[in-house]
Amino acid sequence: MKGYIVCVYKSIKDQNSLKNYATEARAAVEKYKGKFLIRGGNKITTEGENWERTVVIEFSSFQEAKTFYYSEEYKKAHALLGNTVVRHHHIVEGA
Fold first, then answer.
1. Which of 48, 55, 61, 95 could be joined to 7 by an S-S link, Cβ 3.0–4.6 Å?
2. Strand locations in the chain (E)
């Protein structure tokens, strides 16, 4: 089964930090053969709380999504965020 990274940003305090993170994270996603399905874009909140940004990345398997997240490449990218965002980040197994 495929694996997904689902990340919902509640707040973003520094767009420059997010941009730097996104550049580094993209390289890690590409290395682990992830595919961006959603990266921001238009949205309508139809239920629940409103969020600033949503990202969904597809991987060939749940294990590959975990390998990506715990990789040194992604850890390096993640460190660039510091405390500039509040988000919910999940690794989810597909149906």
1. 55
2. 3-12, 35-39, 53-59, 85-93
**Distance (Å, rounded) from C-alpha 47 to C-alpha 35?**
27
- pLDDT value at position 72? 97
Report yes or no: 32 and 68 within 8 Å, Cβ to Cβ.
yes
pTM of the predicted protein model = 0.93
Helix (H) or strand (E) holding 65: helix 62-69
Please name each of the domains of the chain with its CATH number.
3-41+51-85 (3.30.70.100)
User: How does pLDDT run across 20-51, given as a tens digit for each residue?
Assistant: 999 999 999 999 999 999 998 899 999 999 99
